[in-house]
Design brief:
four-stranded antiparallel β-sheet, 278 residues, 43% helix, alpha/beta, TIM Barrel
């Protein structure tokens, strides 16, 4: 089960500060009578995979600790349109104040989890696994990675600090694959795996002799199959670039691959979820 990032409360506070500013919810204060209470429910309006319900709850309670929030499903659950995800009761002003920020987190994270699950399901029956990438919204990476796990995929390196990944621009500046790997071995912490991005079989053969893992970028299926035959089980082989829902099944079937998909975070549409006053 995925675990919420340790900085989730900081993200909630930042989001509420952004929405409320110094004046607060001027509309609810002007329109809703002080002391009025209500009940509301949060409802999915399309099929998908839910992620972010505990974050939503933290938003409501950060606005008003006296609100009662009942979560009815676990993150990672597949839901049908019309499913009630949670119920909220208490101060009407507080519920309306928290509504948009709570839903922004919930719809965004559920959108990532839903798209991720579609990619994961497309690889069913193969030995390949789906990974996320660093193509995330600034400031939300840890939560987006949480949503990826809710969708059933695995995680790549978190940032630039926890893995050596030599990409094409590194190779160009270093003077070649071999030289880039030598410099990484000499200067990077010895505890980090050295992965090398390649774009051809020739580069792959050079990287295979020097790196700990290989990332094959923007390759046609025939090239992926040749790479699988060359690499075998010696080191991990990752495939990235141009991986769509239409292509991932045949790519996954080529062998035991790590398939990194940027679009599950940078292009996932928000899942349609709404809060309704009862």
């Amino acid at each position: 089960m995925a675990e919420l990032p340790v900085d989730v409360d900081e993200m909630v506070v930042r989001a509420l500060r952004e929405d409320l500013g110094a004046a607060g919810d001027v509309t609810s204060v002007a329109v809703v009578a002080p002391g009025s209470t209500c009940r509301a429910h949060v409802e999915a309006r399309e099929d998908g995979v839910v992620s972010g319900l505990p974050v939503m709850e933290r938003v409501f309670l950060a606005v008003d600790p006296s609100l009662e929030v009942g979560i009815l499903h676990e993150d990672g659950a597949a839901l049908a349109s019309g499913a009630v995800l949670a119920r909220v009761s208490g101060s009407a002003r507080s519920i309306l104040t928290a509504e948009r920020t709570a839903l922004n987190f919930l719809t965004h994270l559920s959108g990532i989890a839903s798209l991720t699950r579609r990619f994961v399901d497309a690889c069913a029956g193969t030995e390949s696994v789906v990974l996320c990438t660093r193509k995330t919204l600034p400031g939300l990476r840890s939560l987006e990675r949480y949503a990826v796990e809710c969708g059933g995929a695995r995680l790549h390196r978190f940032g630039l600090f926890d893995g050596v990944l030599i990409k094409d621009n590194h190779v160009a500046l270093a003077g070649g694959v071999g030289q880039a790997v030598r410099l990484a071995r000499r200067n990077a912490p010895h505890t980090l795996r050295v992965e090398v991005e390649v774009e051809s079989i020739d580069q792959l053969e050079e990287a295979l002799a020097k790196g700990d893992a290989i990332l094959l970028d923007n390759a046609e299926l025939d090239t992926v199959k040749r790479a699988v035959d060359l690499v075998g089980d010696r080191i991990p082989l990752e495939v990235s670039g141009g991986v769509t829902l239409e292509r991932i099944g045949e790519i996954a079937g080529a062998g035991r691959l790590l398939i990194s998909v940027g679009r599950i975070t940078h292009s996932a549409p928000a899942l349609d979820i709404a809060l309704e006053i009862e």
